[in-house]
Structure formats: structure tokens, C-alpha cells
Amino acid sequence: MRGPAAARVPAPKLLGRESERAELDRVVAGLRAGESRTLVVRGEAGVGKTALLDYLAETAAELRILRAVGVQSEMELPFAALHQLCAPLLARLDRIPEPQRRALATIFGLAPGPTPDRFMVGLGVLSLISDLAGERAVLVVVDDAQWLDTATAQTLGFVARRLGAEAVGLVFGAREARLELHDLPELTVDGLPDRDARALLGSTVEFLLDGPIRDRIVAETRGNPLALLELPRGLTATQLAAGFGLVGGLGLPVRIEQSFLRQAEGLPAAARQLLLVAAAEPEGDPVVVRRAADELGVAADLAEVSSLLTLGERVTFRHPLVRSALYGAASDVERRAVHLALAAATDATADPDRRAWHLAAAATGPDEEVAIALERSADRAQARGGFAAAAACLQRAVALTLDPARRTQRAMAGAHASLRAGAFTTASMLLATAEAGQLDDLGRAQIDLLRAEAAFSQQRGRDAPGLLLRAAQTLEPLDARLARDTYLDAWSAALFAGRLARTVGLREVSRAARATAPPEGEPRSSDLLLDGLAMVFVEGREQAMPVLEKAAVAFGQPDISADETLRWGWLGTAAAATAWNFEACLATANRQVEAARSTGALAVLVVGVNVLEQVAAFAGDFAEANALRAEADAVREATGTHVAPYGALTLAAFRGHEDEAFRLIDDTIAGATAEGQGTAVQYAQWAKSVILNALRRHDEALALARLASEDTPELWVSSWALCEQIEAATRTGHTDEAAAALARLQESTRSTDEPWARGVEARGRALVHDDDAAYLEAIDYLGRTRLRPDLARTHLLYGEWLRRKGRRTDARAQLRSAYAMLSSIGMDAFAERARRELHASGETVRKRTATAATGETLTPQERQIALLVRDGLSNPEVGNRLFLSPRTVEWHLSKIFEKLSITSRRQLRDVLFQSDFEAASG
């Protein structure tokens, strides 16, 4: 050091950071322009994230600003940080749609209710903030996002991804990336440049530093502002010269914490204890801190702790690292004493959950009373949708439970909550704890079931069927009803796995299910479904058909239970497809989608809408299928659910846009093969064979149709593939293969009088046997159905056959019908095939352009919005359906009106006509 001590130069509020401030200025500019913005400001502890967020808030002072801070000790309390944000907005709950209002009222404890779907909670928060933004642009600032409770992080991540036309900004400060925020725009904050770091260091050190020492400190702190301000604090010039406290192998945050501890060590014992009480109280409630201090007999002078702590309306530490440093340095005895005092200071009626946490932290060993309190906290957390919090409560309760039976019971309950929260590692640990305890046969069976559910939840692939089958077999002598339900879940898992199941597939599950005792009393719809589906693989389709018909019809009835509809409705459509009952398929798909929408069961909705999209495509209503695809994409994006795009494959197959369809098909085959989802591969092979037949590449179509028809031949998609195989085989001269495929198709249609079955069988017979009457029979049967693509293709095949027979006049009549139908539906590849056939028959036909029907210029999402508005839904109701805010719906509507050249919602009825399929769906 040189010269006398220099006077301290006050540091500027925010030194440097020109590029970071410019990025934040762009956020504010976007909000002022009415646009939405999201940003994650990421950097290590002390690097200046909070200062940047403060700068952002000051810059946007004229906006409505909502702030929240993640607190480490609150990470297990569901929606704790969300309550900070939304508390000022709860008076607006009556301004958002009813399902969302119910969800938010439940999680905030304003009203009792069933556990809300977490995505419905996210949609409610989106609507609430969007409503506020209708008055003034809103900036949401969340600091220390690495410490957000899981439920809040998931909700805010959802909101950030669904922002559209509203002037809302979400800006997070976080030390490291969180999974819930992983794909949001980021601003990485590093240490200050050397020049700024030297200036900041000079502002905090009260004496002049030699250049080499100053540069060494700047280098060791890597320009971290908090380190530059705090590490030298309390050190003498000699210590700084020697590098005391600044060198060593410890990480920078730990060294900063040690600096804070040095400052605390100079305080009286009472002051240190007051700091520890405040560090252990996550709410920052000064009343609770005072009461706990009184419980401990602490009478500290607030002036003594003012350098580290402010005790005003809220208890605030100078930096979050102060809290972690003080709490981490305390002994177990000191921490337990403080938590016991905080438990005594916490109102057991007003905040029983936080009191239970403090009691648990104060426990020195097993304590049944505290375990019971934690168990009750877990129940309350689950009722609010906080499954991660419930799992944490139960995990701690297990540690405090001495009785082996109760310990096992709580471990299993904790594992179940962990599965619901997606915490599979925690679930596995708790299941291991349960297995180590005293288990009866039912307990062991329930553990098997939980392990199977974990496997199925993580990946709907190869392993889940075997685990679920073992669980069902173990449950059978203990709980017959639960066993049958588990057999049906095992069948569902095996259906996803298809031929890629590892050791247990559909045949093994079906044989085991057929060997089980029949249900007692009147069979439920799910009992009929299990028996019918299993019989297909054991006794054969002919014997299974009557039971499948009953199950298919039962699942489409309005009196079926919501639980059965939500859990197995999509399997009901599988039964209907196997029985060739298109009307039951439509009714069941509609029923499941309606139930999922009304209850907010979004994991079910993503499957149900996928199925309904297939049904719409088979009906030839591609506009509706497109709209459903937009909804399916919205739900899939919102929930992160990985379901193969069965609906999109079906639509792509019928449309016949080669490049786009083949990309989707090839991607599906690659992804599904890797994940062990064999039925998705079979679907993709069938879809590609349809397109190749449309393109008259029959050799290639035959190879793929053969693969799809022979892959799990009992499934309905195999029957669809047989239709393609017959067409491709007859066109390529493989007459024996065509005849064999027809025989198999006849086996699948023999036991039903459904016109769909009768129509495709007659068409196959016409192709194989050159049977004029069979073509007319097929047209007659398919004409009685909604299956316009099948009917149009039959006209095409009959017209081609007539032309080859030299009956050109008759051929032209059939080909004209085919071309008109195929063009109006949007089956472009088949329409082009019909046009060429017409030309070959001597008739000149202009090639139709792609832009035909009104509304075709709309994107799938715009069309879905337009259809919902046409049918009378309000903007909030549309937003609730499509996971958009009402303002975003309004923005889309303005674009829709411009594209359709209309000016009002009423005019949508004039330009978007309701199809027969929509009428049946409505």
C-alpha cells in the first residue's frame, strides 16, 4: 500500500453493464410497444443479477410490476412464490373463466375442491396477468428462481411459453438453469470487466491498493461484484496485502459466505442468535421472528445486526448468501432450538404446514405427533396440487416414524406423491424403504404396481407391460377389482409397446387377463373392454366381436362414469375400431375429449384429441382434423406429454403430400423405435403405404403394407393395412398374396354387419376377383357411412377397373365422382391419380389449385379459434381450450377477420359452414 488512507468514493448504483442494460432496455421497449417478452438472467451468486433486475424495475417504473423471490427453505411448500406474485391479484379472480378460477381458489386455500390440474393453474395465472395487462403493461420479476418451489416454477414456465399478444414480460434471475425454464431466452451475466471491477473495489476499500494487489484481488474474484464488495470487508491493509481470506480452493460463493460469517462473528451472542432465527424463518415475518426470539430469551439490539439484516415490514437480509451462511454455520443443536422456538411462534391454526416443518426440523429422533402433522400437511398439499411438497412432507414423516407398519404406509404414500410430481428418483428411494419394512401380500402388490406405473410414466415402451402384468397377477387374490383395472392398464401399456415389447406383450397380457375370474355382479364398461380386447388375442376376433361391440357402445354413452371415460376412453375407441363401428368410435372419442376438457385432465386430453383427429380424418373433414391437431399441439406443448402423432399420421396419409408426410413418418418411426413404441411404428408403415398407393408406387406400397399387416395382426391398424396390401398386390400382379390378404380381411369383418366392415370387404373382393357387383356393393355400404375417403377411393378403384375393361363411359362417371370427392376432401395425391385416369378415359380435366375452400388460408390454430368462436365461445373460453390468454385470442381473431374479409364474429357462421362430422361431434 502506498500513501495515507484515502477517502471512500461512493460506488455508482450499477457500474458498467452496458450490454446487459441494453438487453433489459429492449425488454421494456417491447412491453411499451404492447408485445410480450421473456428472459432468464443467469449467473453465479453475487454476479449482479439482483442489481440488474432492480435496474429493470426502475426503468419500467410506469408499468405494473409484480415481484417475487425464491426462498431456499420454501422450496417444498407448493405455490409459495406464486402466492407472492398473485396475492395482489386475487380480487380479480371473478374475471377469469370458471375452471381456472376454481383451480386458483383451491391452490391458494380460498375454497375447497379437488386437486386441480397443474396446467389449469398455469392457464389461470396466464389469464389473471393478461387481464391486468389489459389496463397497463405488466412486468413480472422473479429473483432467485433456482429456489422456486417446483409448482411455482412449472406454472411460471408454462405462462412464459404461452404469452402471445399481451403486453406482459416475465424476467427471471437464476444461478443455474432450471428444467422448467430451460428453453426460454437467456442473458448470461459474467463478472465485471477489469476496469469496472477495479473501480468497484476502489469504492469499498478505505485505503489505496498497490496495482499488483488490486489486480490479484480482481483476478481472484473474477470481477464478481458481491465478492469485490464483501471479501475485503473487515480485513486490514496487511491482511489484504497477504491475500488472507482471498485465496484457497473454496468456490467463490463459499468464500463470500465466509466473509459474511466474519462480520457476524464480531457481534454479541444475542445478536448472532437473532440472525439465526431470521435465517430459519423463510417467510420473513417480523412478528414470528420477534415471538421466536422472545421464546429463546433473546433481547438483541437491532442496531447491532443492521449491517446484515433489516427488520421492518419484512425481514430482509443484505444478500441471500447471508441467510445460507448463517444457517449452514450453525450447529445442529442451535438449529433445532431455533426451529422449536419458531414452531411455538407460528399459529397452528393459520399456518399448520409451516409449524409442522419447524417441528420436523427440531426433532431429534422419531416423533409420531410430528409425523402425523407432516402427514396432514401432505394431504393439504396434494389437495392444492402440490405433489412435490406432499412427497417431501411424507419423506420427512418416514424418517420420524418408529412403527414399522406406519413407516411402510407413509413411504408408499410418499412414493405415490413423488410419481405424481414426476420425481422418479425420490419415488424409487421411498419404494425401497417400503420394501424393507413389514409388508403383506397386498402391500407387495401395491409396490409392484407403483414401480410399474413409474416405468409407464417415464417411457411408454418396452418394460411397463411386464411390470404391470406382474402387479395385476399379485393383486388378483387380494383385490379382484383393482387387479382387473391393472390388467387393463397392462393391456394399454402393451398396446403402446406393440411388437417392441421386451418379454411381455399383448398376447401374454391377454392370456393372463382371460385366466382371471370374471367380475362379480354387473360388469362395468371397463370389464367389458378388458374381456373383449383380451378375447381378440385368445379366442379370436369372431368370439370377441359381441363383447367388443358392447364395450364400444358403452363407452360412448352419456351415463358412463367420468373416471372410466378419462382412464380408458381411448381404449374404448380401439374396441370400436376393432369392431368396425365408426359411430361408436366417434361418440367415445367425443365423450373422452369433453370429459378431459371439463375436468382439466390435460394428460388425457392430449391422447383424446389425438384420437378424435384420426376420426375426423377418416370422416374426410380435414379442416376439423387440422383444428384438432392445433389443439393437440397446444396441449402437447403445454404439458410436455410425449404421445406419438397418430392423428397427424392419419391426416398425412390421406392428404398425400409426399415430402411433408414422409418426413413425419420417418421421424415417427425413428423416435418410436428408440422409445419402444411398436404400435406407432405400425401406424407409420400403414400411413406410408396409403401415400405410396396414391402415388401409384404400388411395389413400395406392397412392402410396407405387408409389414404393417403382419405386425400384430390382431390390431385394427393391421386390418387397415390389409386393405392397402390387397390394392398394391392386385396392381403388381401378386394375385396369391392379394387373395391371402383378402381372406385375412374377411376374418376381421365376418362377425359384424357394420357398413364400414361390409364396404371394405366388398371392395377387397372386387379387386381380387374382378367383380363388378362387388364394387357396387362396396359403394352402397360405404355410402351409408361418414367415411368419405373410403367411399371416394372406392369410386376411383371402380372407375379404373371399368376403364381397363373398355367401359369408358361408365368409367368416366365413377372417376368424375371420385375426382370431385377427393378434391373437395383434400386428398390431393388420390385426386391427381383420379384426374389422370379421367384424362386417360378421354376426358379433359383441369388440375384444381390448392387454394379452394373458404378458410383454407387460415393456419390450423386460426381455424380452431374461428370454429370455436363461430360456435359461440367467448374469448376467455377459447383461451381456456387452447391455452391462450383472451388477449392473444383477440389478436388471432383480428388476423382471421382480415383473411376472411369479414368484420364481426357473427359472420363466421356464413363463411365457415358446419360439416356433418362437426354436427355429430357437437
Explain what this protein looks like in three dimensions.
Helices cover 66% and strands 4% of the residues. The chain is mainly α. The chain is globular and about 105 Å long. Residues 1-12, 242-250 and 849-855 have low confidence and may be disordered.
Structural key phrases:
922 residues, 4% strand, 47 helices, mainly alpha, two-stranded antiparallel sheet, five-stranded parallel beta sheet, 66% helix, globular
Topology of this structure?
Blueprint: H1 18-32, E1 37-42, H2 49-59, E2 64-69, H3 80-86, H4 98-107, H5 118-133, E3 138-143, H6 150-162, E4 168-174, E5 186-188, H7 194-204, H8 211-221, H9 225-230, H10 237-242, H11 252-265, H12 269-280, H13 286-296, H14 302-305, E6 309-311, E7 315-317, H15 320-329, H16 332-345, H17 352-362, H18 368-383, H19 387-399, H20 404-421, H21 424-435, H22 441-458, H23 464-475, H24 480-497, H25 506-515, H26 525-538, H27 541-555, H28 562-578, H29 582-599, H30 602-618, H31 622-639, H32 646-655, H33 658-675, H34 678-694, H35 698-710, H36 716-731, H37 735-749, H38 755-769, H39 772-782, H40 788-804, H41 808-825, H42 828-840, H43 860-870, H44 875-882, H45 886-900, H46 908-911, H47 916-921
Parallel strand pairs: 1-4, 1-5, 2-3, 3-4
Antiparallel strand pairs: 6-7
Helix pairs in contact: 1-2, 4-5, 5-6, 7-8, 11-15, 12-13, 12-15, 12-16, 13-16, 16-17, 17-18, 18-19, 19-20, 20-21, 20-22, 21-22, 22-23, 23-24, 24-25, 24-26, 25-26, 26-27, 26-28, 27-28, 28-29, 28-30, 29-30, 30-31, 30-32, 31-43, 32-33, 32-34, 33-34, 34-35, 34-36, 35-36, 36-37, 36-38, 37-38, 38-39, ...
